[in-house]
Amino acid sequence: MNNQQKLTQTFVQALGIAEEQVSDGLTYNTIKQWDSTAHMILIAELEDAFDVMLDTDDIIDMSSVAKAKEILARYDVQF
Amino acid sequence: MMSNSESMILKGGSVLVTGATGDIGRAIVNECVSAGAAVFAAGRNDGKLSALVNQYESRVIPLNYDVTDEKAVKEAFRQIQKQQNQPDVGPLMGLVNNAGIMHQAPLSVSTMDGLKAQLNINFLAPYQHMQLASRLMARHRHGSIVNIGSQVGEQGSSGLSAYGASKAALSGASRSLAKELAVVGIRVNTVAPGFISTELTAHFDDEARQEVESRIAMRRAGRAGEVARAVVFLLSKQSAYTTGHVLPVDGLFYP
């Protein structure tokens, strides 16, 4: 599984949504499944999946799938 | 008498205890290990941390860092994040924010530096620990955070306004976080000790000790082990439906 697939699966599991719903344009609070509670679980799952510990500023900034990729790239996760 | 399986109420997971080398901290480590947990013991004194490791061998993992150093705290959690995957350690299921300081001073001679130091150690540091621990616990949808508050924070005490404020802030945050984190399976409770015989109260002479004990319904100081057993109860599934609670361990104290 490459990092893109890993990212997609993490969003699917954390938010409880279909794989087809995960796109770069998917944004926090635009679907009911991605609320503040799910965001916390998403962060926990991303940290686990990619073996990183995110800064609080990055967590605040992680407002979309595209942004998640951009932030994870700073932690040496390449897409 | 409890069977061995009944007493191992923390088996299969790990617990981070800050201030692990003080009297109450050591008692908490002892009770957690006895209950089957692996313990990340955080402290500043290498000698005392080594003593804990020697006593409990592989069940205690020492972490030497300053709880008020945000970067050091994050590095400590990074280490926990990696080590919790080891089968003999297990996922972080408990956090005990025990590290603290107490400066006694009336308002007229309280310094802002003293106030800030107590807020930093007694409130801001536990807050960051809760923030990072909750992320590790959220992965498993399970965890218990126990903050060591104080009856001074709950009831107030003359000459301890800064200390009381720092502990009241901690129990206030605990109540709110209990509501916020319940949805991801994390409980947050506070243990509020009264007058406990530790190195912090060792300077009380007989007269001062008797004066304090006269304000305790049970007429004696508490013991570190009594605080520790309350902590383990709140860490364990025995308190599975209890969150946002402040549990006094004080012999009914009027500070």
Question: Can you describe what's shown?
Answer:
The complex is a heterodimer of chains A (79) and B (255). Chain A is an all-alpha fold. Chain A has helices at residues 3-15, 36-50, 56-61, 65-73. The longest helix of chain A has 15 residues, at 36-50. By secondary structure, chain B is α/β, with parallel strands linked by helices. In chain B, 45% of the residues lie in helices and 15% in strands. Chain B contains 9 helices and 7 strands; from the N terminus they run H-E-H-E-H-E-H-E-H-E-H-H-E-H-H-E. Chain B has helices spanning 4-7, 23-34, 46-56, 70-83, 112-138, 151-155, 161-181, 206-213, 224-235; strands at residues 14-17, 38-43, 60-64, 92-97, 143-148, 186-193, 246-249. Chain B is globular, with a radius of gyration of 17 Å. Classes of the chains: A mainly alpha (79), B alpha/beta (255). Chain A binds chain B through residues 37, 40-41, 43-45, 47-48, 51, 53, 56, and chain B through 74, 77-78, 81-82, 131-132, 134-136, 138-139, 183-184.
Structural class call of chain B reads alpha/beta
Relative helix content of chain A: 40-55%
H/E series of chain A: HHHH
Mean pLDDT of chain A: 96
Give the number of DSSP strands of chain A. Answer: 0
Shape of chain A: globular
Radius of gyration of chain A, in angstroms, nearest whole number: 11 Å
Q: Give the low-confidence spans of chain B.
A: none
Mean pLDDT of chain B, to the nearest integer, reads: 96
- How many helices of chain A? The count is 4
With helices defined by DSSP (H or I, 4 residues minimum), what is the helix count of chain B?
9
Large-scale geometry of chain B:
globular
